[in-house]
Amino acid sequence: MSSLFRSIIGCIWAAAFYPSAALAQEPNKEVLIGYVAPLDDPDAASGAQAAQMAIEETNAAPVRIGNTNVSFKLLEQNDKADTRAAERIAQYLIKTEAVAVVGHWTSTTSIIAAPIYAEAGIAQLAPIAWSSLYTQVAGKSHFQGVGSDDLAMSYAVNYLASSLFLKRVMVIDDSALLGVAMANSFEKYAKKAGMETLRRSVSTQTSDFNSPLLVAKQFRPELILFTGRSAQSAALAGSLRRLGISSRLLLTGPVVSPEFLTKINYSDEDLYAIVPGPPKDGNAKIQNFRKRYVARFNREPAPFAMFAYDCMLTLISAIKKADSLDRRRIIASLYEVNYSGLSGMMSFNRDGTLKNPSYTLYQTEKSRWTVRRTIKAPA
Predict the structure, then answer these.
(1) Checking phi first, is residue 323 left (phi over 0); if not, alpha (psi -120 to 50) or beta?
(2) pTM of the predicted model, to two decimals?
(3) pLDDT digits 0-9 by tens, 70-120
(4) What are the distances in angstroms from CA 283 to CA 176, 180, 276, 342, 372?
(5) What is the pLDDT of residue 371?
(6) Any alpha helices (H) in 78-148, and if so which ranges?
(7) Beta carbons within 10 angstroms of residue 246's beta carbon
(8) Fold match between 26-147+282-348 and 149-276+360-376?
(9) Which CATH architecture has domain 26-147+282-348?
(10) Can you point out the beta strands (E) in 140-183?
(11) Domain over 149-276+360-376 is classified CATH 3.40.50.2300
C-alpha cells in the first residue's frame, strides 16, 4: 500500500470516527460587518476600536453559523459625517458581502443612509443616532442603539425645572438635524412647563458664539441649552466665562469625560450634560470593558464607545440566533434578540426603537462630572 493511499484512508477514517477533529480543520468563512463613522473624529474612532474589540472577543471562541465555521471581520468606512459620502458608502456596502452594518455615527448620516439599506434588505444598527426621526424613516431594517432625543429632553426639562426653579431658558442649536430636533423638543417641553424661551442657531462649524451670547446677556436666562459637538461645546463654555455670563449650561454631546473638563479648565458647578445610557462608571460590566479597552488600545474609551461595542455584539447575537448569514433573516432576528449589554438590555420595538432606554444627567462638581439623575424609560 502506497504512502499516499494510506494517508487518504487515514483522513477518511479520522473524519468518520472523529468528526469534531475534521470540523476543527475546516477553514473559517469570513463574515463581513460594515462599520461606518467619521473616523477622523476621536469619539467615532474610539467607537470603531470598541467595535473591533467586540469582534476580536467573539472570534476568540469557535462560532458556527448554519453548519459553517465563521469568523467576523470589521469593514470600516469613513463617511466624514458628510451626507453625500454616507450615501456613497451605503451604496457600496450593499454591493459587498457585508451581512449587516453598524452605523452610521451621526443622526443625519444614519437617516440619509437608512432608505438605501432598507431597500436592499440589510440591517442597520446605529450606535448613537438618537434622533427620533431616524426610526421614522420608511422601512423595517434600521434599529436605534440608544433612546430617542425627545425622551431625553423631556426628562431633562422635568428634572431641571423643579431642581433649578427655571423661569427663562435660552436654546442654541448647531443647525444639524439632531441638534435642531433636540432644541425643538427642549423648547416644546420648556414652554409646557411655563418657561420663557429664547432660540438661536449657529453653524455646525463655528467656534464664535459672541452673537447669541450677547443676546443672552440681555435676556439673562437661568439655563442655556446647546446641542452641538464636543469641540463647539468647549468653545461655548469658554465664551460664557469670558463674557461673564452666569447662566448654567446644559450640553448634549460626548462631553462627559475628565479630558473635556481639563480642556476647558472648568471647575464650577453650573455645567450639566444629558446623555443616553447608564452612568459611564455605573456597573462592573462597564468597568471591565474599560480595563480591556485600555489594555488593548492604550487609551481611555471615548464616552460613547460602549454603544458601538454593544451594537456590534447585539448584531452578532442576532446572527447567531438566526443561525444564518442571510441579510433578511438577520433583520428578522434583530426584532427577537435580547442581548444584555454594557448599557442594559438591547432589544427593539417593532419600529426599531430601543426598549426601555436609559439616560443620565450629569453636573460638574469639584472639577469632575457627578451623576445627578439616571432615568430609565418605562416598559
Answers:
(1) left
(2) 0.86
(3) 999 999 999 999 999 999 999 999 999 999 999 999 999 999 999 999 999
(4) 33, 32, 15, 8, 16
(5) 92
(6) 83-95, 107-120
(7) 12
(8) yes
(9) 3-Layer(aba) Sandwich (3.40)
(10) 142-144, 168-173
(11) yes
